[in-house]
Amino acid sequence: MAMKGYKLPGEVPWNDVELGAIVTEPGSASIRKTGDWRTERPVVDKAKCIKCGLCWLHCPDAAITPMDDGYFEPDLYHCKGCGICASICPKSAITMNEEVEK
Amino acid sequence: MSKRVVLEASHAVAEAVKMADVDLIAAYPITPQTHIPERLAEMVAEGDLDAAYVPVESEHSAMSAVLGSAAVGARSFTTTAGQGLELMHEALYIASSHRYPIVMAVCNRTLSAPINIWCDHSDIMSCRDVGWIQVFCQNNQEAFDMTLWAFRVAEDPKVMFPTMVNLDGFILSHVTEPLILPDAKDAAAYLPKYNYRLALRPETPTSHGCFGPPEIYLEVKYAQEIALRESRSVIDQGWKELKKAFGRQYEAVETYKAEGASTLLVTMGSLGETAKMVVDEKRARGEPVGHLNLRLWRPFPFADFRKAVNGVKTLVVVDRAFSFGGPGGPLASELRSALYDAVDRPKVVDFIAGVGGREVDGAAFEYMFNRGQELAKTGSDCLYEPLQVRGLATGTGVRG
């Protein structure tokens, strides 16, 4: 998911910081992995899903991706596991499963 | 053609802002700074100055508004005093961290409570570490010159830091005296056109004020710290060019009759003028004393200061603010710190005087000179001596 050519904050030496820490590449926030904050991950049961898109609409982090087949998949690089998608789903097609340590 | 005029320092600052041809002014009036925004508002209303004037609802909003205008590359000015500077406080760090070259005139005023509108340096002393370039003025000419100079230095691509011009409230802001205004064309030649490389523009989008997690925050702050220290060369260059253009000379540390002096009296701001009068009187009597004016407060001119006091036996420091429960007055404590590693350092005797607008006259300076030399000789276990506190015996010091 990381964007090519961009440096992650932890890769920038002090003398390469842009003036005022101003970001000159639009959309570069998407390279920051926020998925590792998660304690629970959303899992979609396609058998129950009616492709209504409410999960996509309500996700506060734009971490639900519409797929070509009309279903919706969580983007685990960015998903923080808040569970709003699971709460809003009218068919209870999304369950929050606990992340287990690797 | 330059011309000799009679102006109060507030209007001198307004003239400098006008000659700088600023794009935006956002300010909230507060005594004793009121005449600056008032005059600028008039200039804008009368069409003498082609700028946006934003009459904001508070000083926090004033600083926030100039942050916005600076972000789009507009030459921006604001001004405040005392409580107003305190209300701005958190936004001051944003200006220096984003590296916006905002210029602000501060008419130094004490802080409540009890409520008091008069001059001292309590307001600026709580802003020492906000990351701005900070200079002090001794008179109205300097208030004009420093304001024009501030834009030039702040906007230099090698600097890009907001700059504060400190002028003592009432003592300068409201006092009328003669000064020389340059021709607007010469002022414009001194101050190059400003172009901000990272301005918010739809065609070249940038993001200002982004998240700085632990893995980058430290690098950002270190870069900022080094850049502020390295701004010194441009600061000095700005004064050199000012001398070339207008004939007046300024330096980070200025001494007066310091040659052969065993005692130097150290001040910041308008007290320097009175101090020099007393130096003249004492020199006429053959006493080896001089004056040191600390013009540049941030970045602190360590090397210049150590050089200026080399061979001096005693420094008598006049502080205009308390540092409650701290190491004496803020100025003296910084000077002591600057001298600690020097092999042959002078004794530093600190007085806190002129707080909340209390008069510091020639007699007070005479006392501080004499008492300072006496204490340097006998030694003292006091941090400082407060001057003219009613009910306190003269010569009573405060111990740590």
Description:
- The complex is a heterodimer of chains A (102) and B (400).
- Chain A is mostly beta strands and 102 residues long.
- Chain A is built from two helices and four strands, in the order βαββαβ.
- Chain A has a two-stranded antiparallel sheet.
- The two termini of chain A are 21 Å apart.
- By secondary structure, chain B is an alpha/beta fold.
- The chains are: A mainly beta (102), B alpha/beta (400).
- Chains A and B meet through loops of A and helix 8 of B.
Strand content of chain B is 15-25%
Q: How big is the Rg of chain B?
A: 21 Å
Strand order of the largest sheet of chain B: 3-2-4-5-7-6-12
How many individual β-strands of chain A?
A: 4
Number of helices of chain A: 2
Distance between the amino and carboxyl termini of chain A: 21 Å
Regarding quaternary structure, how should these chains be classified?
Answer: heterodimer
Question: Numbering strands along the chain, what is their spatial order in the largest sheet of chain A?
Answer: 1-4
Q: Could you list the spans of chain B in which at least 5 consecutive residues all have pLDDT below 50?
A: none
Give a short account of the largest sheet of chain B: 7 strands, mixed
Q: Report the end-to-end length of chain B measured between terminal Cα atoms.
A: 56 Å
Tell me what portion of residues of chain A adopts beta-strand conformation.
15-25%
Provide a short characterization of the protein structure.
The complex is a heterodimer of chains A (102) and B (400). Chain A is mainly β and 102 residues long.
